[in-house]
Design goal:
The complex is a heterodimer of chains A (313) and B (250). With 313 residues, chain A is mainly alpha-helical. Chain A has a domain of 215 residues. Chain A is built from 14 helices and six strands. Chain A has a two-stranded antiparallel sheet. A two-stranded antiparallel ribbon of chain A has the order 2-3. Chain B folds into two domains: 170 residues, Rossmann fold; 54 residues, no CATH class. In chain B, the strands form two sheets. Chain B has a six-stranded mixed β-sheet, sandwiched between helices. In chain B, strands 1, 2, 3, 5 and 6 form a five-stranded antiparallel β-sheet that branches. Chain B starts with a strand and ends with a helix. Classes of the chains: A mainly alpha (313), B alpha/beta (250). Chains A and B meet through α7, α8 and α9 of A and α2 and α3 of B.
């Protein structure tokens, strides 16, 4: 990707709230960040985690609770949620990386289900109701995230949007830097041929664990941000449906591409929102699209586009 | 015999009662090319995987330069200077040949855990990587797609990657398996060149390759040593002829 393309994307992100409903745009960004974090594992390390909702939702609960009951400012709340997700990622990762392939996925799923159970039963989570009415608060104790501005007859919550957009850019930059670092090179080598990476002297498990912790921390950052935007942390955030959705987003957009997860997340979330009138049939429609995608363009939208343009996107 | 670099003492491996390797005492002399041969099922690959720590022995010990390495992990013996190859070519198919070699060069730099650094810092390794690629005749393909290389070239790339780590001991698992005659010659020459100043232990089926390369040969049968010595000697041994060579020469 050249510099101009990045500047255009950045400009699009900055201008977006004037064209698209800001809360919807923020939802897109949160799920895009979630998918980016997930893709760091699946696309660049070759690990299929089927429990990433535990980090997304777990961080949402922690952030929501701390902001609501301990009076933390939103940035500290999100930081706490992110650190919690990193710690949880270290525990889950340490156990899961001892196994490979489908067993790795099953271990992550099982541990994520434990987190779901805890979210259902622990008193502070609000059980079935979730954690509601999380205040958006004041960024750094100063900037009112509730504040709306009247622009061209519309009332836009720009403070919150630009805060979320900045977090998204930070997360995107961390993922981008990680995959284009010496560490990222080793991750790709592990994805390509684990036994060979091992025999060259790389302690493969340590690399996998670090990648897992970075990925779960960023998934947590996405979930924590989401809880501030929607002022809600709910069981949906930690359920295995959400773990599955992020797999779907990443595969649709293009696994192992930088922009694929963003495109995938935008597609899935937009479809869910635009087609909400069909009710439960939405699952069938998205499933159908997924089948077509797997049959026709296996590399995902961005992956296929990259192949046509002959460059890595 | 030259001083011993790798030695196994009473090495045994059992799989659910089946004894794949039994009481093996193997000595590999420093600076030699040592070949491990034997009929199918003789336990060659098991020995290989024991030496490279991909399998844990049931009993016995392995010593490298006098140091007991029986309990080391696969990644640790690589840092001691033992690098293995695989039966099927072990390259990183979606990385370029240059990146393949650079992965090996990168290991000793201490940058490998730095996820906050740009990969541009790896460019300082490019010159050395090109030298290594050039030595195996891949310099003009350095930026291509590794997965699309011909089989013989992948094997050559694998050797370049292994040499990048300057191993004292190279363990090669059937380096010419599945190759046409032309590639066999090329790889034989590369192994010969690579063996300068280092020790090579190889498992190999192709007796022509063994005859032209190996200083010393160990013939395995049913997990134990049947015969040992230079090719001329071993190839005349009646037990070996009966077990293995007889059919190969027929």
């Amino acid at each position: 990707m050249n510099r101009l393309a990045w500047i255009l994307l950045l400009a699009a992100g900055l201008a977006a709230p004037f064209a698209v409903y800001p809360v919807f745009m923020m939802k897109l960004l949160c799920f895009a960040l979630f998918a980016l974090a997930f893709n760091l594992l699946l696309g660049y390390t070759g690990l299929l985690s089927f429990g990433h909702a535990a980090f997304f939702g777990g961080a949402a609960y922690v952030t929501g609770h701390l902001v609501k009951h301990a009076g933390l400012t939103p940035e500290l709340g999100i930081l706490s949620g992110t650190l919690f997700a990193a710690a949880l990622g270290w525990v889950v990762g340490s156990l899961a990386i001892r196994r490979q392939g489908i067993y790795f996925a099953m271990v992550t799923l099982a541990l994520a289900q434990i987190v779901y159970f805890l979210a259902l039963k622990l008193p502070f989570t609000g059980g079935e109701d979730g954690l509601q009415g999380i205040p958006r608060g004041f960024l750094f104790g100063v900037i009112d995230l509730q504040r709306h501005y009247a622009v061209a007859g519309k009332s836009l919550g720009l403070n919150l949007y630009y805060f979320v957009f900045a977090l998204f850019c930070l997360g995107f930059w961390i993922v981008h830097r990680t995959i284009h670092s010496p560490f990222g090179q080793v991750l790709k080598a592990i994805r390509e041929n684990e036994a060979r990476a091992l025999s060259l002297g790389y302690r493969v498990e340590r690399f996998k664990l670090i990648a897992f912790v970075i990925s779960s921390a960023l998934a947590g950052m996405a979930g924590a941000t989401k809880s501030i935007v929607f002022q809600l942390a709910s069981l949906t955030d930690v359920s295995w449906h959400t773990s599955g959705e992020v797999v779907l987003m990443t595969l649709l957009g293009g696994v192992g591409t930088v922009l694929g997860p963003v495109a995938g997340a935008f597609t899935v979330v937009t479809l869910q929102s635009e087609l909400s009138f069909v009710g439960p049939w939405i699952t069938v429609i998205i499933g159908g699209i997924f089948v077509v995608c797997v049959l026709v363009f296996r590399r995902g939208f961005v992956g296929e586009l990259g192949r046509i343009l002959k460059r890595a996107l | 015999m030259e001083p011993c670099i790798l030695e196994t003492r009473s090495l045994s491996k059992e799989f659910k009662g089946f004894s794949a390797v039994a009481d093996l005492n193997l000595r590999v002399g420093r600076g030699t090319i040592h070949a491990l041969i034997g009929p199918n099922g003789a336990g060659k690959t098991t020995v290989f995987n024991l030496l490279t720590k991909f399998l844990t022995p049931t009993s016995g010990t392995i010593h490298f330069k006098g140091q007991d390495i029986t309990k080391e992990k696969p990644a640790d013996i690589a840092t001691l200077g033992i690098i293995r190859s695989f039966q099927i070519s072990a390259v990183f198919p979606n990385l370029s040949p240059l990146e393949n070699v650079r992965i090996a060069l990168q290991r000793t730099t201490g940058d490998s855990y730095r996820f906050w650094k740009s990969e541009r810092c790896l460019r300082r390794l490019d010159a050395r990587a090109m030298e290594l690629l050039d030595a195996v005749g891949l310099a003009d393909l350095s930026g291509g797609v590794t997965g699309e290389l011909a089989y013989g070239r992948k094997r050559a790339l694998e050797i370049a990657t292994t040499l990048a780590l300057e191993p004292e001991l190279m363990l090669l698992d059937e380096p010419t398996q599945g190759m046409g005659a032309e590639d066999v010659e090329r790889i034989t020459a590369l192994v010969k060149a690579a063996s300068a100043n280092r020790t090579v232990l190889m498992v190999e089926h192709n007796l022509k390759v063994v005859a032209s390369l190996a200083d010393r040969i160990t013939v395995l049968q049913r997990g134990a040593i049947l015969a040992e010595g230079p090719y001329a000697e071993v190839s005349q041994d009646p037990r070996v002829l009966e077990a293995y060579m007889g059919s190969a020469h027929a």
